[in-house]
Amino acid sequence: MSKNLVIVESPAKAKTIQKYLGKDFEVKSSFGHIRDLPKKGMGIDLSTFSPDYEVSADKKKLVTELKAAVKKAEMVWLASDEDREGEAIAWHLAEELKLKPENRKRIVFHEITKNAILKSIENPRDIDQNLVNAQQARRVLDRIVGFEMSPVLWKKVKPGLSAGRVQSVAVRLIVEREKEIREFVPKASFKLDGIFLNKTKQEISAKLKKDFDKEEEAEKFLEQAKTTEFKVLNVETKPGTRSASAPFTTSTLQQEASSRLGYNVTNTMRLAQRLYEEGYITYMRTDSVNLSQEAIEGAKKQIVSEYGAEYSAPRNYTTKSASAQEAHEAIRPTDFAVKTVGDAQLNRLYQLIYRRTLASQMANAKIEKTVIEIGNTKLPQHFEAQGEVIIFDGFLRAYGIVKAEEDDEENNEKLLPKVTVGETLDYKKITATEKFTRPSARYTEAGLVKKLEELGIGRPSTYAPTIQTIQNREYVDKREIEPQTREVVKISLANDTIKKEVLDEKFGGDKNKFVPTDTGEVVSNFLTDNFKEILDYGFTARVEESFDEIANGDQKWKEMMTDFYSKFHPRIEDVEENADRATGDRLLGVDPKTGKNVHARIGRFGAMIQIGETDDEEKPVFASLMAGQNIATITFEEALELFKLPFDLNEVDGQPVSVGVGRFGPYVKWGETFISIPKGEDPLSVDQKRAEEIINEKKIADAPIATYKGEPVTKGSGRFGPFIKYKDIFVNVPKRYDFENLSQSDINELIDAKLEKEANRYIQQWEKEKISIENGRWGPFIKFGKAMFKIPRKADDTKYEGEELKEISLDEVKKWITDQDPKAFAEKKKPAAKKATTAKKTTTTKKATTTKKPAAKK
């Protein structure tokens, strides 16, 4: 029996720590928080701001097991993470497991290494209540904001919406950037580039130092250049240096993993968590760029060994952010001798962290920058060529250079040939190209993290969940923006001849950047108009500062909550009572056929175009917007075009054919089959011939690729990747199979495995009641509808065997479900009382649903 019980958050962390501790220690995982505010109801006493925490249903069994383990141990070591969230987990464990101060110790470490674990056990402390209170303040304040603001949105915008303190501010940033892009008026100018040749015919690329506003000015300059003798007017060479960036914080890791590896924020944090739990890196949620002396020494030893003493330049960095909350180190390797990690995905992130940390301890790169001025005193402007040579690579040896997203490709500096002042150069070609100014770029995930950090909004632990939440709520998405086309003028001078061309240039297209949805924009505008302070960037940052003060013991958390709520709640009441409904309504014009108004607005089912008014005797008609359209920018003409959909075409193979647009974009409907129209293709341009082509493509795609026991087998690609279909069974095809060239034996193997799995899935099933006992990855469980419930232990505290579960009655299973969710079988109240008052509204919204179509599938 172990005298010591160590409790950590994750099984992976437990497994790693268990390796370093002897037989006197047992390490168990709490699987994160064991209790929280209830999922239903606010769970907070608003007179005292006391939270009503409860153990979640899926953690009750675990808590029972931990209580049993606590009884057997002499000392319990609470080893959750070294931040506010980790401190709160330790406190909740101590409270729920009823740990006495004399029988518990709190230990923290920022890396999972033997040395760090043993050192933490030698230096235990008690739970830091200030850190716990800072976490409680965040949790309670965010629950109150969400719980009180969301019903206002249901009433004033549409049902089912939700608001959050940090998330709403993040959406506001994206909405404001989109408005900025829409309102941006591009300004044209002419940029001149020249290619010059020296005596040995080596090329020198140079740019004119000033742009011309007008085409005539650019053309006049080229006319002058045609008869001008170009000379080297000046050559300036000056030394320079480049220094390494600081080691990674959570934010800079997320940004660099995005630009170098293409990882999104959530994926980066998931991989970093694994690297930490497996002992490869220090704690991955940190604002600090500080390195321990031990780490600096370790990096120095590795640099000297691998690159030489001249590459070593030990230094420490100071954190610029005044609000850095934890006394952590930067994210760094725990052992510089470990250069690679076995798992390929983990290794890519580990290499990034490893090289960045090494580079931060390496000498500056030495460069020599050369600037050549080319021109003639007769010309109003001169050309300039820039180049640089790396004299000593320093930290670049380990980390290299990464091009920032905003860097202009034309500004790449290059090596220049040797020239002397006064030397005559021949021009090979001089080009004046019309260029348009560009608006600020839409936010990438990394760019949004950077902006939130700059504004002091959120903390390392909040960036990833915030970004995930605003996408899950469908306030923003990353849909592709199709580029537009415009004409640009290009004037070239070569061989004493001036040539003018008008070219097409694509602009405004975007991929993988955040764009607000119609709902996101309407919600953000409503909240910004009615809750200015909550949505104010400065206010949100000040709230974070208050959390910092609570963590430092300089402010009482309930006093902060009282002050906040005394201003917040009256505003909620005022908005709920007096604010107008928000639909984003835009009056586009008058329908020439009916003489009725045409509106673009948010309805119960999302963005739509409406002809007529809701209170007209004749009900309005509705049309869904197509992908890429939104209510803020759609034109009157585009809106009327939507009412031409759906339209019917001639039958194909005896089946009716129509073209329409639904929630998932434009489609051809053939019989009961919906077929997506290819991306970028206008559904209104689909005629009989094109529809038949799309249907034939679908036929080919759906043609059987083989048979299984005499039945056809087809293949396709869906939400979860490639699959084959046999009867009504979909079988995912793993990557180890060549999906394009599946053999009959591959197909037999895949279907056999799926049928066997399905046969073993159900222990008992009651289809009418939607209840089943199923075999799962971690053992048998109960499924009721979409909800999953645990199977309790028997009276003698042993588990039920599979054969025993086959004999369990439906009534007994229902009792098990009710024990875990008392309201599981409660009858839903019928909204009879509201029926009369909402009849008119219901009629309206039903018409809106007629334009909605099922998902078009290929």
From TrEMBL:
InterPro entries xrefs: Topo_IA, Topo_IA_2, Topo_IA_AS, Topo_IA_cen, Topo_IA_cen_sub1, Topo_IA_cen_sub2, Topo_IA_cen_sub3, Topo_IA_core_domain
Compositionally biased intervals (Low complexity): 834-858
Region (Disordered): 824-858
EC code(s) of this entry: 5.6.2.1
Sequence segments annotated as region (Interaction with DNA): 162-167
The reaction(s) this protein catalyses: ATP-independent breakage of single-stranded DNA, followed by passage and rejoining
Domain of life: Bacteria
Stretches assigned to the Toprim domain: 3-112
UniProt KW keywords: DNA-binding, Isomerase, Magnesium, Metal-binding, Topoisomerase
UniProt key word Metal-binding: yes
Keyword Secreted among UniProt keywords: no
Pfam families: Topoisom_bac, Toprim, Toprim_C_rpt
SUPFAM superfamilies: Prokaryotic type I DNA topoisomerase (SSF56712)
Transmembrane segments: none
Active site as annotated: Y283 (o-(5'-phospho-dna)-tyrosine intermediate)
Enzyme category, top tier: isomerase
Site positions (Interaction with DNA): H33, R138, R139, D142, W154, R285, R473
Domain Topo IA-type catalytic intervals: 128-572
Subunit structure and binding partners: Monomer.
Family: Belongs to the type IA topoisomerase family.
Function: Releases the supercoiling and torsional tension of DNA, which is introduced during the DNA replication and transcription, by transiently cleaving and rejoining one strand of the DNA duplex. Introduces a single-strand break via transesterification at a target site in duplex DNA. The scissile phosphodiester is attacked by the catalytic tyrosine of the enzyme, resulting in the formation of a DNA-(5'-phosphotyrosyl)-enzyme intermediate and the expulsion of a 3'-OH DNA strand. The free DNA strand then undergoes passage around the unbroken strand, thus removing DNA supercoils.
Stated name of the protein: DNA topoisomerase 1
Organism annotation: Chryseobacterium gambrini
